[in-house]
Amino acid sequence: MLLEVNNLHTYYGNIKALRGVSFHVNEGEILSFIGANGAGKSTLMNTLAGTLKPKQGQIIFQGEDITKMSPRDRVRKGFILCPEGRQIFPKFTVEENLLMGAYTVQDKNLIKQNYNKVFELFPQIKDRQKQMAGTLSGGEQQMLAISRALMGNPHILMLDEPSLGLSPILVEQIFALIEEINKQGTTILLVEQNAMAALEISNRAYVLETGEITLTGTGKELLENEMVVKSYLGG
Amino acid sequence: MKNTALLKKHLLFIIIAVSMLVAPLFTNAYQLRILISAALAMIFAMSLNLLMGIGGTVSFGHAAFYSIGAYTTAVLWYHFKTPYSTNFIPVILITGLAGLLLSLPMSRITGRYVTIITLSFAEIVNLIIKNWDPVTLGQMGIVGIPSVNLFGHVLKDKREFFYLTMLFVILTYIIMNWLVDSKLGRNLRAISNDAIAAEAMGIKIFPYKVIVFTISAIFAGIAGSLYAHLMSYVEPATFNANLSFECISMVVIGGLGNFAGTMVGALFLKILPEYLRQFEFLFKYRMIAYGLVLVIVMWINHSIPGTKLKNAISTRISALFRKKSAEAEEV
Predict the structure, then answer these.
(1) Could you tell me which chain B residue has the CA closest to the CA of A151?
(2) Would you put residue A165 in left (φ > 0), alpha (ψ -120 to 50) or beta?
(3) Which of A15, A19, A87 to substitute to test the interface with B, most B CBs within 10 Å?
(4) For testing the chain B interface, which of A15, A89, A146, A158 should be mutated: the one with the most B CBs within 10 Å?
(5) Domains (ranges, CATH) in chain A?
């Protein structure tokens, strides 16, 4: 087991956003969380990344309790979040954005290696290395955000709503790339409102509702589940 | 190749610095005094530009650090008769500490809360100065502060004082540019670009906020300490909110993150009102003229995007909605 989360509770002031979430992630899989607006998906991601502190519960990564660890040390361990809403640095060039992603990587050769690997995955942004990131299109910005996270050499890559605000064709492209990244050996933790696209590429998935896990199964099982179809797939 | 690029980047600074350094050959005492106050404003405004242009925090209370610097050296002189060269270290320490204090809440807040906290910080500092009679002499102010004394050498001549100030201007410019190009500057820009992304990349926000506030405060404090010795008296009324706003104007006119531009802004806002004084008919309305010129300069600078005003408004509105939907989603 690569990651184990036990009974996680997170609050915003007095508002309970996560009510005892427990799950595990296996090495090499794509795991996704689906749920409606306000289900606590982003809260879960931010708690895992360490930008939010849980009131209760435990996060165990590779056998080590990281619940109290700073975001920076989690990134160092290869536990990397690609935040929601294409949070790139708009006034940095594409190149600078990517190098910021390697902030915690010390090995210069590894940085170079990752840099080239990223462009193999995303040839679209290769031609734009010297361009300000803010001038990229929405899809390119999302690709840049994912590439930047890859520069940190992730063991688990957490993607928060990678399809947000993208056209259907781009969504398909992005998800194909996520599968590709996974095949190259990165475990993926995915949070999505676009349940169909997420479930299709996931090995396993959890359904999150008002801060609690209500359903779990393989991606295929959930795609056929009556309740999921009704609430999330528009069936 | 690299040298010419470097020269090009700093050309404006070199022009201003050289012309200011030779200026005292042609000026009378009155004009020299204006130049000194412009040079002090340069240090002060450059320190704010580090905070605004690189750190992404608009401080509406930068005068607080200026006044702390001025009062530190004045109080030390009044109570212990120590010369400027002795007071210099305490000036740095105390203003740095004040900057550190103000930075503590800054990694947790954004937007209007920053405005409120920086504004009130300046008011609190001013109130302390006004009321701490045994130390600061309160409303009366401290009078008779002698000119700068550097290790026994007293700068009696205003020209000498001017060159000392210019030395600090040049040092400030070099240090600021070095900071911006360093890892510190890059991370600060990343944080002001997007704090969430920076944190997700593993940059700790808190220490960088502390560092940028501390450094900015120190330079503002140095400018303030020189001011105290230039004017030979300090009183609380001098260090009001207007001083902070004037400083912000200098930074805005020069352009955020552009330190040579800030120097132009400081020169402009210090010389222009004095220049307009000589025109009989303009003298009456000089504050209006001063305001008009300010608007025009900002217009040219695209700080107020006149033609893009509609764009600016629509981005503001869409940003507002984006923020709201993001907030709704997170819960």
Answers:
(1) B201
(2) left
(3) A87
(4) A89
(5) 3-232 (3.40.50.300)
The two beta strands, A15-25 and A3-12, are antiparallel
Q: Looking at the complex, report in whole angstroms how far the Cα of residue A190 sits from the nearest Cα belonging to chain B.
A: 16
Domain-by-domain residue ranges, chain B?
12-240
Rounded to whole angstroms, how far apart are CA atoms A166 and B285?
55
Q: List the 160-179 stretch of A: residues with Cβ below 8 A of B.
A: none
> What secondary structure letter does DSSP report for A93?
B
Joined together, the tokens standing for residue A138 give 């929405």
- Residue that is written with structure tokens 């540019």 in the block: B177
Separation of alpha carbons A136 and A94, rounded Å: 9
| B327 lies within 8 A of chain A by CB | no
Model confidence pLDDT, tens digit, residues B250-281:
888 888 888 998 999 899 888 877 877 777 77
Would you call A43 and B331 a contact, using CB atoms and an 8 Å cutoff? yes
The C-alpha atoms of residue B311 and residue B3 are separated, in whole angstroms, by 39
pTM over the 0.80 mark: no
pLDDT tens-digit readout, B39-69: 999 999 999 999 998 888 888 999 999 999 9
How far A169 CA sits from the closest chain B CA (Å)? Answer: 23
* DSSP state for residue A134 in the 8-state scheme: G
